[in-house]
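Quick one: structure for this chain?
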Amino acid sequence: MLEKINESVAFIKQHIQRLPEAGIILGTGLGGLTREITIETALPYGEIPNFPVSTVEGHKGQLIFGTLGGKQIVAMQGRFHFYEGWSMQQIVFPIRVMQALGIKVLFVSNASGGLNPGFDVGDIMFITDHINLMGTNPLIGPNDDKIGPRFPDMSEAYDRSILDKACALASREGIPFRTGVYAAVTGPTFETPAEYRYIHTIGADAVGMSTVPEVIAARHMNVPVFAVSVISDLGVPGKIVEVSHKIVIDAASKAEPLMTRIITGLLSGLTF
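Got it. Here's what it folds into:
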């Protein structure tokens, strides 16, 4: 793995002028944040050695380098999902490359189904913790101690100090927000009503098909994480309707400007 990471990093360094300080993963329907980035370089995944290629609508599939909030950033415009057939190790490979390039923090976004009865479509939820229901883990297999420890601690998967800053920022800017626990499932089917009830019962406020593998990999490498979820549909009894991928994209796109303000504001206030 380390050889592959170094090969990808060497290629990328040939095409960028400055190394990134922060990494951003743009989830389904949330790729428009790139409009706020002063882009210096955009590298299609297909050109980067060892990178998978995103196959999902709403995921453009390129690494973007530039500035946002006064910081050097690298953004994944499109992520990889377990349901596409990629291995867990392939899904998190870009995160490992970002860390090797020098990122000091990782911002993650996603679109998810709301399970908390108090949530509405379009709500923004800052993730406080997660539940891994994917049945696997990106750290399964031989461990390379040069990348991270065999048994990484997950007591603070989502950085509390950044979360506090996000809550303060959103309150100051008048941006409504929720906080809650995110559960990750494999997909690609949306959940049945019984599955929604079960996942809420065990402690989740939202459910989706991503994020957790990337967060595990980031914490394995001691990279702090802040994650935000846009509630794109509801899995609440009495509010469950037929869901399509287009509905998810449309709902996430409407909330995107608020998410963009939060991430940009956080970046502006962070010191590395």
